[in-house]
Amino acid sequence: MSAAASSDAPGNGWTGIAPVLLSAALFAWFLSLGPQVAAGETLRLAVPWVPSLGLELAFAIDGLALAFALMISGIGIAVMLHAHFYLRGDRHFGRFLLFMMSFMLSMLGLVLADDLILLFVFWELTTITSYLLIGYGHDSAKSRRSALQALFVTGAGGLAFLAGAILIGIATGSTSISELLAGDGLTDHALYLPILILVLAGAFTKSAQYPFHFWLPNAMAAPTPVSAFLHSATMVKAGVYLMARLHPALSGTDVWFWALTIAGAVTAVLASLLALRQTDLKQALAYTTLMALGTLTLLLGQSTGYAITAFATFLIVHALYKAALFLLVANIDHGTGTRDATLLGGLGRAMPFTALAAMLSALSMAGLPPFLGFIGKELMYAGVENAPTWPEFIGASLVLANALMVAVAAVVAFKPFWRPPGGPLPAEPHEAPWGMWAGPLVLAILATVLGIFPAVVQSLVVTPTVDSLLQDPAEAKELKLWAGVNLALILSGVTVGLGLLIYLLHQPLRRMIARIDEATFSLDGNWDRFLDGLIGLATWQTRVLQNGRLKSYMSITFLTLLVAMAAPMIVYGVWEIPTSLDAPNWIEAAIVLLILAGIALVILTSSRIAAIAGLGVVGVSVALVFIINGAPDVAITQLLVETLVVVLVAVAMLRLPFLTPERRPATDALLALGVGTVVTLTLFAVLAAPIDRRLTDFFELASYTEAYGRNIVNVILVDFRALDTFGEIAVVAVAALSAVALLRGVRGGGK
Amino acid sequence: MNSVILRVGTRFLVGLLLIFSIHMLLRGHNEPGGGFIGGLIGAIGFILYAIACGTEDARAALRTAPERIAMAGLGVALLAGVLAAFFGDPLFTGQWYFIGDQKSGDYIPISTVLVFDIGVYLVVFGSILSLVFALEEAI
């Protein structure tokens, strides 16, 4: 994806500035709500949506929602500004802005929604906009594959989440999130386990937890501002948000703890190892995003004040440094024409602002003082001491993952700028335009300043978020740079030491990890096989069921009819063989004889036209049955349709050869007899039950008085049930049009 | 089918069938009949014409594409249903007007229900003719 256009391309005009201003306005608005939310208030807005289903467009802003809203709109400013320069002169820039803004608004809707079904709607909207953005470079097959993969994986998870939301609705009687959180939680409910599994399936796929992680690195096929926004700072955190949102209702059980701890730890460690393996800077960052998502999940597994404080802090820390680094990698790509870590080097002089922003962000990522990242890491380690079970496991995973982060931070933000290049660069390095480094630089400076003055983050974001999750603001631990010499500080020292060691050895390690990675099973590697299998299955069943032979269509249709009608009769045992039947009068006997004669003709003749005529005899006889039973409308329709069928079939069949006197298989006869028997038995069963005359009475009474018509059948069709009739005539018209289209295709030699 | 007798006979029959189909449509509210049956009879008239004189002549006699008639019918039916909304009733509620004196029984009723039935007639008529003409031409 070489979207970075040269600087002499025409600019994007002022259209690209509007999204920046919108993001900034939203950010300012959310910021102005800060004091109210920090005071423990929850701001609400509800508009009825589908009152008959109890759904409303309900929004609520509490600490957690505000933290995410600030993050989305704030990062949005930097990303939109960057994109305006990065995609300079791009042909589809308008489309890009539309997708990005749709995404941003959906994402804001997601975090502000106060109703699970509403949340699901926004959830799916982010999935769809993400699909469109990953596939932005739609002329590349890789983009298309990645987009589809992300859509399938997160879409499947979204459906699981919808099922979970409905189960929550059944369990609590409401899909309102506020009511759910105000209740006693779901942990003792009989449906708890299915709810948890379904919700986590949605959250884990969206937030790319192992083993569903493979779609996220592939999603880097999107333009880099998209990766910075959706696939590191915001959308992938939707799953984390969902877990945090439902934390009060679902957490505290062993299943919750183990599911989140193990998924989080495995994702964090595995992702940071794989991050080291990458030579493409953007891919390396993609894997570190996975690591962050794993860490956040791991922290949410616990319910201690430390873990949740660390969660809230790390959420902000990560968004700040990761969005900045992604954008800076775009600048490196723009300035040198490559993102290959083995080639890049010595850019410090040519790209001073990018280098400065990268250095600050990387130090925050590595978790060194005085950056906000350091505080986040200290809190994680402090949480380890207070972890309810297995602190060694949690601690070891965190130290290993964080040490690898230190090494990756050095690979991404130190080596390309201050080490000699590994080879000739495709272009003479030059600094990006101001809009491309200003945003990341501000984010990096924020990470520094907020590290030195953590009280701002504490009061605006961290304490309110902890309040949302644990429902007690006093549980929030204090964010401070110096907490004295304790276990956390020692672990930090170990982390940095180990990280530097890994950096020095990163090249041999990279080769080793690559070998192991290639030898192991991966879902991504089998993705294409899975899709091929799916398409193969569809082709196979089409070939079997839709083989183009009318005879097999008829057999399948009638067999289905036979089974569908016989099964309930056998299961419920409704055999009603009448013991006494009235003797038929001579008219009825004559009709039966006519029908039998028609059938005999159809079976015995070898002339198609005679067979059609035989069928016509049967049809007309049935119309006679209607007439003697007092249903002239039905009889007329039957008669006319019968006439039409004979004409239509005759038109088609006249051109066909005579029937060859082949022996028809006995199975046909069996099928025909079977359907006949089942229909007869059904009729007996129907007749045995007393007729419910309520509707008949109503129509007889109302037909003339209310609808001014004496022909009840027609009055029902055009007045009482007019909407149904309208649907039916629409089907008739569409069926006719489709048939015409198919026939035209035949004539045009299409098949 | 090349038969002079059929061709000559059809000329008269088509007209009669069409008049009969409209008769069935209009009397449908009180006697057996209605848009569906009327549409079928009208279509059969034109199919007879197509068999006797060829689809080309039949299409020419119809003046416009049968698909268009079907779609117009769908539109008419929808319009009849939507009209109710302008009188504050739920969709597809019949609206009635009586021209003349209602008490003496000497009046002509006009209703959206009839308009709806005309829509049904046109859809059935147009759809079946589209299908039959296409089938005739494809084979």
Short description:
The complex is a heterodimer of chains A (751) and B (139). Chain A has 751 residues and is mainly alpha-helical.
Describe this structure in words.
The complex is a heterodimer of chains A (751) and B (139). Chain A has 751 residues and is mainly alpha-helical. Among the domains of chain A are: 318-504, no CATH class; 508-541; 549-713, Four Helix Bundle (Hemerythrin (Met), subunit A) (Up-down Bundle); 721-751. Chain A is built from 31 helices and 2 strands. Chain A has a two-stranded antiparallel sheet. In chain A, strand 1 and strand 2 form a beta hairpin. The longest helix of chain A has 32 residues, at 141-172. The relative contact order of chain A is 0.06. Mean pLDDT of chain A is 87; it is low at 1-8. Chain B is mainly alpha-helical and 139 residues long. Chain B has one domain. Chain B has helices spanning 4-27, 35-53, 55-62, 66-86, 112-138; strands at 96-101, 106-111. Chain B has a two-stranded antiparallel sheet with strand order 1-2. The longest helix of chain B is centred in the last third of the chain and has 27 residues, at 112-138. Chain B is elongated, with a radius of gyration of 18 Å. Chain B starts with a helix and ends with a helix. Chain A: It holds the Pfam family Proton_antipo_N. Chain A: Residues 113-385 form the NADH:quinone oxidoreductase/Mrp antiporter transmembrane domain. Chain A: Its main location: membrane.
